[in-house]
Structure of Glycoside hydrolase family 1 protein:
Amino acid sequence: MMINSFAVMHSLAAVVLVSVVCVANAFTRNDFPPHFLFGASTSAYQVEGAANEDGRKASIWDTFAHAGNGGLYKGNGDIACDQYHKYKDDVQLMSKMGLDAYRFSISWSRLIPDGNGPINPKGLQYYNNLINELTNQGIQPHVTLNHWDLPQALEDEYGGWVSRRVIKDFTAYADVCFREFGDRVKHWTTVNEGNVCSMGGYDAGFLPPQRCSSSPIFNCSKGNSSTEPYLVTHHMLLAHASATRLYRKMYKVKQQGFIGFNLLVFGFVPLTNTSEDIIAAQRAQDFYLGWFLNPFIFGEYPATMKKNVGSRLPFFTSREANMVKGSLDFLGINFYYSFYVKNNAKSLQQKNRDYTADMAVELTPYTVNGTSTDEIPVIPWTLEGLLHSLKDIYGNFPIYIHENGQQTRRNSSLDDWTRVKYMHEYIGSLLDMLRNGLNIRGYFVWAFLDVFELLGGYEASYGLYYIDLEDPTLRRQPKLSSVWYSNFLNNRTTDSVITMKIEENSSLLSNTPLKNIAT
Ligand SMILES: *[C@@H]1O[C@H](CO)[C@@H](O)[C@H](O)[C@H]1NC(C)=O
Ligand SMILES: *[C@@H]1O[C@H](CO)[C@@H](O)[C@H](O)[C@H]1NC(C)=O
Ligand SMILES: *[C@@H]1O[C@H](CO)[C@@H](O)[C@H](O)[C@H]1NC(C)=O
Ligand SMILES: *[C@@H]1O[C@H](CO)[C@@H](O)[C@H](O)[C@H]1NC(C)=O
Ligand SMILES: *[C@@H]1O[C@H](CO)[C@@H](O)[C@H](O)[C@H]1NC(C)=O
Ligand SMILES: *[C@@H]1O[C@H](CO)[C@@H](O)[C@H](O)[C@H]1NC(C)=O
Ligand SMILES: *[C@@H]1O[C@H](CO)[C@@H](O)[C@H](O)[C@H]1NC(C)=O
């Protein structure tokens, strides 16, 4: 369903249009299969705060933030949402909202401050407390082990993900988590957005740990964009596979849990119907997603990558290939944007090609006319197209949508119609995807709170709850989207009636301007 005219700002237009959409597209929680999960997501460095408290040491993200985030924005996660101290209240909010699950991550350097070696008892205590609070409220913990925050000690010791040594340390860290928390945690994700980690951190160099040699954006002090992205992915795949092997051998029978990996996924739409662009779109998907999924499903990298990357692409021994192949119980995907893809054969003539040049495509964001540039376009059909393509290539393995959400400016308004519209469209479209045979098991909104964003710091906001950073209590203030999601999750009524209720209450919300409103 096209709803691009929505993009025009705010309440008046939105009230009218939302009603139209909802009449045509009413659904309730009850239309979903009973075991389908709805949740919300965060990650450790983005919400916990207490960065220097109770024995936690720095991660590569702390270092990146304190060095000025590559000049992209201000801020750091020293305090963030202070969930470290407010987790009980936050779990209460989740419970009231009706979340089935909360996706969060464990800070490796809080649990094992030096990355390897002794466990920090206060770190252990914190995650036990949080997990107990969730399970006592009937909320499933879905836990990520590494969300952009490798311990700085391992970066210093041997270059972190660039070195094979990370495989052993990651496996030992995962072992601690399985042993200590696995009686209550049944869904583990080893790495968040592994593909963006390799590209952003080691090719373009604009994300932690900021290594690169040929970035158009940064002069990194270390790195090699021609080789390191491939090494890093190779080590992530092996670290994942090693952790999964350990789990299956030591814990699976008793704990009955599942281990997944997370990728940022995009829909790739050929810019034209020429065969060059159609092939280029397939190649872009191979480079972004097949890079991980081919090894997980088939035990080797995609043919397009072997061809364009050549000897810089590491290879798996047959023992390693067998360990990586089949090591995925589910795939977690984060979905926001899609791209038009144009073939770019010229980039293959460059000397010292980096990952981007190897891909040999030109990407342009897929836009929807009428959507303001601040907003993420609502394009669920591109997600469905992508998921059918993955199903055709790799089979119908289980998928969790780990992140999906709309961006607004942090201090704009509690009356976040654009987010309500976005969630309504994506959640509604999930019903079609399930009816069309896709094996989607759950949906997590990014984000539960306005967190410290990787891109955008405290200026960008995705949260269901707003936090005024100048309020010393960091009170969580519900946005309209949290009211909408809560109504939906509690199955109070049909969607069109929910919309009317929101309309009544939205005037109430929009008359409560936030401090620091920019527009
Ligand atoms: C949810 O809503 C549907 C449709 O209105 C209704 O049939 C169903 O009984 C409701 N379920 C619960 C658990 O309230
Ligand atoms: C990187 O360094 C080169 C050479 O010193 C300089 O010309 C260029 O402006 C720098 N680029 C950035 C983004 O700082
Ligand atoms: C990157 O590594 C490759 C292969 O070892 C080497 O040929 C190239 O010179 C390196 N590039 C930089 C910028 O160090
Ligand atoms: C390509 O072909 C498809 C199917 O025939 C059509 O829907 C689409 O609009 C075409 N795209 C372009 C850019 O011409
Ligand atoms: C979007 O806008 C552009 C420029 O205004 C126009 O050329 C194009 O046809 C529009 N596309 C759609 C799908 O309306
Ligand atoms: C509007 O919000 C108030 C306060 O949260 C609540 O008591 C009331 O039931 C809401 N009205 C509707 C129609 O949902
Ligand atoms: C509100 O946010 C905008 C966009 O980030 C920013 O330019 C403006 O300075 C902020 N206003 C205040 C008072 O914080």
